[in-house]
Amino acid sequence: MFLLCCAVISPTTSQVSGSLFAVLGPCDYPFMLRILLFDLDNTLYSDTVGMDRDIVVRMNSFVARTLDLGLSEAAEMRRERTRRYGTTLEWLMAEHGFTESESWFAAIHPEGEESAIQRDPGLRRLLESMPLPKVIFTNSPMEHADRVLDKLGVGDLFDRVYDIRFNGLKGKPHGEAIRRVLADCGVVAAESLLVDDLPKYVRGFVEEGGHGILLDEFDRYGDQPFLRIHSLAELPSIIAGIEASESQLSLF
Ligand SMILES: [Mg+2]
Questions:
Q1: What pTM did the predictor assign?
Q2: Which of 121, 149, 223, 232 is the most exposed place for a label (fewest CB within 10 A)?
Q3: How far is the CA of 30 from the centre of ligand 1 (A)?
């Protein structure tokens, strides 16, 4: 296990200079990093795959049908209102009394949705190079996660998938969901690290005392206070920096 402390570490590939721990998130030091949590969509595969864009198209169409709106109006309303919620489904349930969550999942995540994803041996090697236990923490339903992980060829590398049903349809960034997942993992927040492509989810995790890394593939979020990486390929060097820190401390 790795001991994280207040020592200054500058990951060579990080976009953020200075203390790694100053940008990973607040905690009481020292602590042992015991688990890595990964978001799924646009985190384990690139945004350029386009699957997430197809999901957004289906969500906008569903919202337009459900609320009897034009497509552009539905898209704009969804974009605006979901800022206050974890997901579009959560918004529909909270503000429009929507209760047909299974219909929503079936429409948004149809069979074959994963067709654009390619098997990724490089991702597999990368994940295998990081020996810490790994889980998926996603706001999508399990059937979607299963399809994506199976297509990528990495499902067996994760000890568990925490999906939106596990969290009673109210997942990231809510503290209750984060605490539920961490309790099931058997760790405290300071012992965990989440990698996610959405700032609001990283923020929620950090506010719970966990450590967050923002996967910012296209440099969209330079104003965010989190450690940002362009690619998951940068993670091992960050972990190595943590290991080096532990090694240095053991000399004292
Ligand atoms: Mg994502």
A1: 0.86
A2: 223
A3: 30
Q: What is the DSSP string of 141-198?
A: -HHHHHHHHHHHT-GGG-SEEE-TTTTTT--TT-HHHHHHHHHHHT--GGGEEEEES-
Domain boundary among 72, 97, 114: 114
Question: What's the CA-to-centroid distance between 147 and ligand 1, angstroms?
Answer: 15
| Cα 20 to ligand 1 centre (Å) | 23
Last residue of a domain, one of 89, 114, 139: 114
What's the pLDDT band for 238 if we cut at 50, 70, 90? Answer: confident
22: domain range? 2-45+120-249
The CA 163 to ligand 1 mean position distance, Å, reads 12
Mean pLDDT of the chain: 87
pLDDT exceeds cutoff 50 at 235: yes
Same domain, 132 and 221: yes
